[in-house]
Amino acid sequence: MSLQLETKVPDGPIADKWENHKFSVRLVNPSNKRKFKVIIVGSGLAGASAAASLGELGYEVEVFTFHDSPRRAHSIAAQGGINAAKNYHNDGDSVYRLFYDTVKGGDYRSREANVHRLAEVSLNIIDQATAQGVPFAREYGGLLDNRSFGGAQVSRTFYARGATGQQLLLGAYSALMRQVDSGKVKLHTRSEMLDLVVKEGRAVGIVARDLITGEVTSHSAHAVVLATGGYSNVFFLSTNAMASNVTAIWRAHRRGAAFANPCFTQIHPTCIPASDEFQSKLTLMSESLRNDGRIWVPKNVGETRPANQIPEEDRDYYLERIYPAFGNLVPRDVASRVAKRMVDSGRGVGALENGVYLDFKHAIAREGQHAIEERYGNLFEMYNRITDEDPYKVPMRIYPAPHYTMGGLWVDYNLMTTVPGLYSIGEANFSDHGANRLGASALMQGLADGYFVLPYTIGDYLADYLNTSPVPTDDPAFGYMSTNGTRSVDWFHKELGKIMLEHCGMARNESGLQKALSDIPALYEEYDSDVRVLGAGDSLNQSLERAGRVDDFFELAQAMCLDALNREESCGGHFREEHQSSDGEAQRDDENFTNVSAWEWTGDASNPELNVEPLEFENVALTTRSYKWSYK
Amino acid sequence: MELQVNVILQVWRQDSPDSQGGFQTYQVDEVSDEMSFLEMLDLLNERLLSQGEDPIAFDHDWTVGRGSVGPVV
Predict the structure, then answer these.
(1) Domain-embedded: residue A532
(2) Which of A145, A207, A288, A383 is most buried, by CB atoms within 10 Å?
(3) Is position A312 within any domain?
(4) Of residues B22, B67, B21, the one with CA closest to residue A43
(5) Which helix (H) or strand (E) holds A408?
(6) What residues of A are in contact with residue B50 (Cβ under 8 Å)?
(7) CATH of the domain at A331
């Protein structure tokens, strides 16, 4: 272990840590803030909210996004909602309960202090968003409405129909554009970060490429913040937008930032199954549908009747059967694995037998079609457009798909990575969700980091650099490849995705991971010699953009498999087949793996160095995460 | 039973903001009816690339009126 993983978690009782920390961190006085420049890469919920907040505070901010507008960021795709411990339903919720649920839901692989802070500031997020005019759903009396999500027994999810991410992003975008308009934030659209610049051990800037002109430019700052999202596209087929990639955080990793828990990836249980081999992305249907939909497969292998002609006695509502306490609302990892088990057992539905049913028949009979339409109208319409099936009349077909990555850059309590001056926020860091993220917690974390955490913590670092200019950067020019092999970048990406889905997806085992670790470098070698990228680097060239991203996915894939191989236990989204009980439940190894794996780049993607941050649980007792009968 | 169609596309191609652009016609044969419009463009790009032609640049992102809106059809 060569890295010092100092968590900087403050002392004191868990409920006081953040309050005390906010008081003890150094401040930069208002007139000095304008002397500091901060670069933010990414303009989703985390990036846009951070940029808006830092701009409002008075810092000089530059935002880089590879989209044509910050509104295109993938946060916009989040459907179901955002958690907050407001307890509006008076159903027993509290900051402590949200904290508890999140730690438990993450299968005890997250840092207690970070999670408690997240639960605390969840309250502020709702107030902030409401003040911005985000149209959260309201009850008849005018109060904000809540619904329940997987992994919780209270209703704490705020939502704006099925477009919560979109509405929250528009709120953050409005706040950001106000700063752009006032000149505090400079926005670089269509600009992709290619490298992090580190001088004397500190992050001092980035190198970016203009995607339209191909021009490569250097930008310096006192601190750099990466808010570039997750890496699910390593699987090729995922619910992430096509452009989502690991490049920014991976290249920061190559410059010294430790990468934590890369094998902690989440498979979302409710996506529309692939309909053909050409498909390049999967569409997610919000998990909130599980509030009213009942999941089932036919009892018999080889069932050929259409769903509506299968009588109740021939249906297996398997989640309700196996997990009577949580039923259809078991956490995502559990729902996903059991769906895979059902399909693998030959009871999959649809033409390709690659899905399970999500049925609204009972909810419609109970509450009427209008009520269901009110809650999920746009989701039903979307499903109908994609599949040409009417979910009001026949059950939806769903199947799990890669969706979110809990792993990411290692950060301390201040959200700073192992490279001083480099911060990572939102899905790009590893901090709050442990081995499994609960539904509606991604929006919460992105906005918590951007609006309420980073604006406090970044000042503590910057205070040391008052009256210093950003370091001028004159960086090594980037050599671009233009190679005339025989296969496209996409072909290689698809092949890599197949290996990852097969061996590092919903279930993993030693021999599969070993096989992946021998197949990936072989394919990578072939990629280097046989990929075909036409055109030049000095103009719009999408093949070239993708070539760089897929290159990084090849390296990341190896880190994921090594991490999955090293973690000899099953926890959350990481299910090692060797570590399960006789009835197929995940078995953690708390003695040896109550920790964070933080991988350090050594120059060789197949041989990174492992550093370990031990996790201490002072407030939550580690229990076996069973959703079968009782809550605690 | 999968249905296949042949599609004729007219696509605006332009090398750079300053260059003169123009429509080019492409025939895409044997397109599965399960494919989305964007997947068909992926297929065409694979074919163009194998012939040594520059692929068509287009944005494809999230779906149903959000994210990037993709090409104008």
Answers:
(1) yes
(2) A288
(3) yes
(4) B67
(5) strand A408-409
(6) 486, 488, 532
(7) 3.90.700.10
Identify whether residues A290 and A389 lie together within a single domain: yes
Which tokens belong to A7?
Answer: 């968590």
Q: Is residue A510 part of a domain?
A: yes
pTM: 0.91
Which residues of A are less than 8 Å from B43 in CB distance?
278
Beta-carbon pairs below 8 A across chains A and B: 72
Cα Rg of chain B (Å, integer): 13
**Element at A205 (helix H, strand E):** strand A202-210
The token pair at A253 is 């990793």
A241, A276, A540 member nearest B67 (Cβ)? A241
- Torsion over CA of B56, B61, B64 and B66, rounded to 10 degrees? -120
* Residue A537: CATH number of its domain: 1.20.58.100
Among residues A351, A371, A401, the one where a domain terminates is: A401
Q: In this predicted structure, what is the pLDDT of residue B67?
A: 44
Number of domains in chain A: 2
Check whether residue A396 and residue A516 sit in a common domain. no
**Is position A156 within any domain?**
no
Domain extent for A563:
489-595
Closest CA to A270 of A376, A388, A166: A376
User: Any bridge partners for residue A484, and if so which?
Assistant: A532
Do B63 and A283 lie within an 8 Å CB cutoff?
yes
Sign of CA dihedral A126, A129, A133, A134: negative
The predicted-structure confidence for A178-231, as pLDDT tens digits, reads as follows: 999 999 999 999 999 999 999 889 999 998 999 988 888 889 999 999 999 999
For B56, name the nearest residue in chain A, comparing CA atoms only: A542
Q: Which residue of B has its CA nearest to A190?
A: B59
A 198-237: CB under 8 A from B: 212
